[in-house]
Write a structure and sequence with these properties.
The chain is an all-alpha fold. Helices cover about 50% and strands about 0% of the residues.
Length: about 230
């Protein structure tokens, strides 16, 4: 995470919120149809796909889920699976052994506690093995149209700090989510993850952000502090 200058002027909440609205407007213009990049057919397959995506790219997950869901398409079938068999299918993604065990445990809990269906609340979702707030927010938003928060992944975490919407002291996804919820209007909570993930991959890259082509450059307090991309 880039260091922010200690001399950076503090902004009032009203000014920060006005800047957030302009950021949201420009992101809407740049990514008007941004959506979840993971392939899924229902709430169950989405939950499993997001669980698998931790510390792994969506592209890598999409390569393994056709076979995974072809063999275990729902909670009843996956609850009966051998974790070693699932591990063999998803072995190309990171932490595949832990994730395969969580897939089976999650499916078994769905059968035991939720009549085989993905629950609709944050509290219930985060009871499931391998499911934290980020996964729960994505599932609620994309599967059920419920917006309770903002899914903070590595891209959202980085961009929130760079844009000055979250201070360096907010050093966990939960703290960054709290800062964003206090800054952006509720109607923007849902689009933020999808839009900022794309923006983080294309422009606000971790090591060498492309500030010279950034549509938010005039709104970014960290621009002069970041290592710039080299234009040849």
């Amino acid at each position: 995470m880039p260091r922010q200058s200690k001399a950076m002027p503090r902004q009032s909440k009203a000014i920060r919120q006005a800047r957030a609205l302009e950021v949201a407007r420009r992101m809407d213009a740049r990514y008007p149809t941004a959506e979840c990049a993971l392939h899924f057919s229902d709430a169950f397959t989405l939950t499993i796909a997001v669980l698998l995506s931790a510390q792994t790219t969506d592209v890598a997950v999409n390569k393994v889920t056709p076979e995974l869901f072809g063999r275990w398409p729902d909670a009843p079938t996956m609850a009966q699976a051998n974790p070693a068999d699932i591990a063999e299918v998803i072995r190309s993604i990171g932490f595949y052994r832990v994730k395969s065990a969580n897939c089976v445990k999650l499916a078994q809990m769905l059968i035991a506690d939720f009549e085989g269906s993905i629950p609709h609340t944050m509290t219930e979702l985060t009871r499931l093995p391998g499911v934290g707030r980020k996964t729960a927010n994505i599932v609620l938003n994309n599967a059920f149209g419920i917006v309770e928060g903002i899914a903070v992944d590595t891209h959202v975490f980085r961009i929130a700090h760079r844009l000055g919407f979250s201070p360096r002291s907010s050093n966990t996804p939960e703290k960054v989510e709290r800062d964003l919820l206090n800054t952006f209007p509720r109607e923007q909570w849902g689009p933020i993850n999808h839009q900022w993930v794309l923006f983080g991959r294309e422009v606000c890259i971790a090591r060498r952000p492309r500030c010279d082509e950034c549509p938010l450059a005039d709104l970014c307090p960290s621009r002069s502090l970041l290592p710039q991309s080299v234009v040849l």
